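Researcher: Structure prediction, please.
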Amino acid sequence: MSAGSRPTAELSRLVHNVHEQGFQELDRVGLSGQRDQGLVSTLISRDLSGSDDLCVSWGRILPGQRHLCHHHPDASEFYVVISGSPLVYLGDEAYRAKPGDGIYIPRGLRHGALNDTDEAVDLVVGVSKPADWEFVHEE
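Model: Predicted structure follows.
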């Protein structure tokens, strides 16, 4: 690339749509053998987009599902609640989230979510590493 030139956009790597690619079930198992619950559709990552600094996904927690409490010693995370009102665990606190909430989760902070309502929860989830962050179960 010469001085002053701009990189070209590879739209097939840079743009991904949750409605086109769908969701995958979470596949982790907790400390007592319980299954981590919820659905995820990765939209930006190292492998998918070539990102070197973050990972962004669309998460969905169906009624009655629980995303087990855990922490990441090497990455911070955020949730932006799009719909629904999950109970979000942050350290020793529980917070009833609502659409429009932006929730910051510093690295090392215990967190998880429970959908104890009759409505699906949709959230945008971001992690400060593009891949390979550590996931440490706390339940």
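Model: The mean pLDDT is 94.
Researcher: Thanks, that helps.
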